[in-house]
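Tokens help. Consider this.
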Amino acid sequence: MSELATLRRWLGDFRDAVERKTADLDAEQLARRAVQPSTLSLLGLVRHLAQLEHHWFRRVLQQHPEETQLFVIDGVWDSQFDGAVADPAVVEEAFATWRETCAQADAWLDHLPGEALDVVIDPGDRIETIRDVFVQVLQEYARHLGHMDLLRETIDGRTGT
């Protein structure tokens, strides 16, 4: 298996885990905050992951930096989480947006040759190559899936999903 295929497999596995960790929960459960004063919730994390995918795969790799960050209002990063309220319409929008950003990223990645992982995209930045973007996205998913594990367990005791 190529390195690109391996990275994409891990990304797909992490995306599937998000679906499992949020399955069968209502709007109130998805929006439930971790602990005060934190605004962290499963729904907020789904909104954040949509923004993450959009930023790295659309704004950075596809070079559309003029597009606004998803769920970030007036440059306030925490609005991704503050706006994650127990409203079925907000839940529907968050999941639809996340799934669409994933599908858009996959459509672009479908045409990326394996040797492109070494292409320099932003010399001088900590993220220099397409490979670096993948590693950044994967570590973000891994970290936030850990948060999701804890949040889900506090809701209904479900673990290991």
